[in-house]
Structures are given as structure tokens and as C-alpha cells.
Design goal:
mainly alpha
């Protein structure tokens, strides 16, 4: 149902009235962003499946077929599902909570460098068509354009949310914090008229912030070498 609504919005948003930049920001930050990442939360029961890798490959192949068929709205939501499953699968390679925390500490710096003077900056500015194809698009009402987030942003959102569930952290507050920080990133991008800001710092902080006390307790007791419950 939710995927159908997202696809319907993507297909039909262009016919709606164009009410201006800040209304676009409100629609993305308050409606589309939460609805999109609600899909990740609802998919959490799949995070422990042993068939995530083949399922992600199948969805990736389906996304390519949908793109070639010109079915952009279905292509968009299929990318979302494929990246979500990849994030869940990636977490299965992590044996302890310390690995997740290390990733959360490191990736904001890597992403910031990439957006500033790295591969992301090159793709966004020199190959915008490629970025549009691989990124997830939030269609803006009354416009042909969209606000976009990159594949790693969805992948790591799924990974961190699944980690919160796996290691018995605060799943609900983690989701709220990550979505809220992403919304703030979009608002700051528009407010300061920037081409874009790295989104992974928002995702990482959104994971760490609501779980700080639990992570600190785990660090003091076991050095964060917390294994997932059997």
C-alpha cells in the first residue's frame, strides 16, 4: 500500500500546482521523507532473512528492467527496496555492535570528503544524469525536477535501523532521529542555497544520538563487543 502511494506520487506530482520552494521543502521533509523511510521500518522483519542477497539482486535486476521500460515511478520504489535489503544484508556481516559504531563514526567524514572533493562531487556536477538514475528521487509538486538522496544514504539508514533492532537499542527513536536529521539537512541545503550537503552525517548522528547512553553502557561493560541475541 505504502509503496503504491509513493509510486503514485512520483507518477502524478508533476500535475499538481507549483506553490514555491519552501512548500516543496515542507512536502519533502514532512511527508515524503518520513513515508519513504517508513518502508525501511516496515521491512525490518526481513532483516534476519538468509535470502537477502539473492532478493536484492532480483530487485536490482527488476529495477533495471523498469528503467529500460520507462516506468520511472516503479523504478524509483524498486530501487528503494533493493537498497534497503542490501543494507540489511550488509549488517549480517557485522559480528558485534562495535563494528556498527565504528562505521557510524567513520562514514560521515568519508561522505563529507566525497561530497566536497570526491566521487560524489564529480558525479553530481559532471554526470548529473548518472546521479539521477542511481539516486532515489522525491518528486516535487508541479515540477519536473526532484530532490534526491544517494544510494548509500538509504543503505546505511537500513543498516543502522536494523542494527538498533538487532542489538536491542531504541528502534523507534533511532528512526525518528535519522529522519529528523535528514529533514534538517534538506532545510539547511535550501536555506543556504547549496548544491547539496552530505546526508550520511545526518544518518550516523541519528543512529548514535538516541542510543548514546546504551552505547556508553555497553562500552563500559563489554567494550561494545555486544553480540546479537541468538
Amino acid at each position: 500500500m505504502l509503496l503504491g502511494l509513493l509510486a503514485a506520487w512520483d507518477a502524478g506530482a508533476g500535475v499538481l500546482p507549483d506553490a514555491g520552494e519552501w512548500l516543496d521543502v515542507a512536502v519533502v521533509a514532512c511527508l515524503l521523507l518520513p513515508a519513504t523511510f517508513l518502508v525501511v521500518w516496515l521491512a525490518l522483519p526481513l532483516a534476519t532473512s538468509r535470502r537477502l542477497a539473492p532478493a536484492a539482486v532480483v530487485l536490482g535486476a527488476l529495477a533495471v528492467v523498469l528503467y529500460l521500460a520507462g516506468l520511472g515511478a516503479l523504478f524509483n520504489v524498486t530501487k528503494l527496496l533493493a537498497l534497503t535489503l542490501i543494507g540489511f544484508w550488509f549488517l549480517q556481516l557485522f559480528e558485534a555492535l562495535s563494528w556498527v559504531v565504528l562505521v557510524a563514526v567513520v562514514i560521515p567524514w568519508v561522505d563529507a570528503i566525497s561530497v566536497w572533493r570526491g566521487p560524489t562531487e564529480y558525479v553530481v556536477n559532471e554526470q548529473p544524469g548518472l546521479f539521477d538514475r542511481v539516486s532515489y528521487a522525491f518528486r516535487l509538486p508541479g515540477e519536473e525536477g526532484s530532490a534526491n538522496i544517494g544510494p548509500p544514504d538509504i543503505l546505511f539508514f537500513a543498516l543502522f535501523l536494523a542494527a538498533a533492532a538487532r542489538f536491542r537499542l531504541r528502534v523507534g527513536w533511532t528512526w525518528v532521529a535519522m529522519v529528523g536529521m535528514l529533514a534538517l539537512t534538506i532545510i539547511l541545503t535550501v536555506a543556504f542555497d547549496l548544491n547539496g550537503l552530505p546526508a550520511l552525517p545526518a544518518v550516523a548522528v541519528g543512529f548514535l544520538l538516541p542510543n548514546t547512553d546504551l552505547l556508553w553502557k555497553a562500552w563500559r561493560e563489554r567494550g561494545l563487543e555486544v553480540q546479537a541475541p541468538g
